[in-house]
Design a protein that fits this description.
The chain is an alpha+beta fold. About 35% of the residues lie in helices and about 25% in strands. Helix 6 crosses helix 11 and helix 9 packs antiparallel against helix 10.
Length: about 375
């Protein structure tokens, strides 16, 4: 017997957040959310995204045992921007059982239909900095801290319910070069001189954020606004929440900005010391030892995650990306970094992907977002 229960109190939220730890116990490729961050994500008082979103979370029980979970998110800001009536499914985790998965999807779809929605799609989070996309290739690879791992059978469960592919993202592993790349340096120098640009690097993360916070979000929104699923960061509360979320894992050695002759930030690159191993071992818990594992890995990482590279549209395809990559490559070499993991890139975004031709690389992961019309 399958029973679907709505998440309505703190005890339910804890079960919702803890379920993947049980499902992926001892899995070497799974990297959980930090528990405290994830619990706060479903607290309307602590998640500023609730200003633009309606959310419902559900737990699935089979013969009294917890066997699945799912969240439904109506991202009103995205729907307004796209002129559509969509609900996102998120945090879908489930045993390999079509009865359970159908019951979970049906519950979200029914709720969304009552809200007047016409399409269900996902997996997608609250915004583009939340985890998104179902892993469909690369199951033997450890997930990055920023992205989600899932079992291969998830695709079968999703497609069984009638979902179809909407978009794919691809991910790459870039191996650190042994020395400075002369081609990248040449392109970077030409861009800097021709457009009167210069690199800015932080003395401290705090001072850098204080100086460039507004330009950072303006650049981010301008660079990514036309991409699939992207939600603009409007409110100060939301901006501050993003900064708070990533401030712990940012290292000044892997943050770089590009400013024009007026001193305005027109591009930036953020990479994070990889936290995958430390968070996997700690199962998402900061205490008692998780925080020490994280700090150790931040200090001495073997690899980095390329979190974000954003360039304002009027400066794209002008060599600005080479300025950012030049700085990050030098940091990788000087700190003995073996490789970098890229963020998700839409499969048809060939301009972005072409820049990796300057590296030895492999394309080792693929993720998918599905959609289904609500009837």
């Amino acid at each position: 017997m399958i029973e679907i229960k709505e998440v309505i109190n703190k005890n339910d939220i804890k079960k919702f957040v803890d379920f993947p730890h049980k499902l992926y116990k001892n899995n070497p490729h799974f990297v959980p959310f930090l528990n405290v961050d994830e619990i706060n994500k479903f607290d309307a008082k602590k998640n500023e995204s609730f200003e633009d979103c309606d959310t419902k979370c559900f737990l699935a029980y089979k013969d009294g045992e917890l066997v699945g979970r799912i969240a439904g998110i109506i991202q009103k800001a995205y729907n307004e921007k796209a002129g559509q009536k969509r609900v996102r499914f998120s945090r879908f985790d489930c045993i390999n059982d079509t009865e359970v998965s159908r019951a979970l999807f049906s519950k979200v779809e029914s709720w969304a239909k009552d809200k007047g929605m016409e399409i269900i799609h996902g997996p997608m989070g609250y915004n583009d900095l939340d985890r998104e996309g179902l892993l469909i290739e690369g199951f033997d690879q450890m997930s990055t801290f920023e992205e989600q791992y899932n079992f291969p059978y998830y695709a079968n469960l999703i497609e069984d319910y009638g979902f179809k592919k909407e978009v794919d993202w691809v991910e790459f592993r870039l191996f650190a070069p042994k020395g400075v790349n002369e081609r990248i340096e040449r392109i970077a120098n030409i861009a800097s001189k021709r457009y009167k640009l210069k690199l800015v690097v932080p003395t401290t993360i705090k001072s850098f954020i204080k100086l460039y916070k507004d330009d950072f979000f303006d650049t981010l929104d301008a660079a990514y606004s036309n991409l699939y699923g992207v939600v603009p960061f409007k409110s100060e509360k939301m901006k501050n929440a993003v900064i708070s979320q990533f401030s712990l894992i940012l290292s000044k050695d892997y943050v770089v900005g590009v400013v024009n002759e007026e001193g305005k930030l027109i591009a930036f690159g953020l990479a994070f010391p990889s936290l995958s191993e430390s968070v996997n071992k700690s199962r998402g818990k900061l205490l008692p030892f998780g925080i020490f594992r994280i700090l150790k890995q931040i200090k001495s990482p073997n690899s980095i995650d390329l979190g974000l590279i954003a360039i304002r549209p009027e400066y794209q395809n002008k060599g600005v990306n080479a300025m950012i990559l030049s700085y990050l490559i030098k940091g990788m070499i000087s700190h003995g970094i073996e490789y970098a993991e890229t963020n998700l890139m839409l499969e048809y975004n060939t301009k972005i992907q072409s820049q990796w031709s300057m590296f030895d690389y492999i394309q080792h992961k693929r993720r998918r977002s599905y959609y289904k019309e609500i009837k």
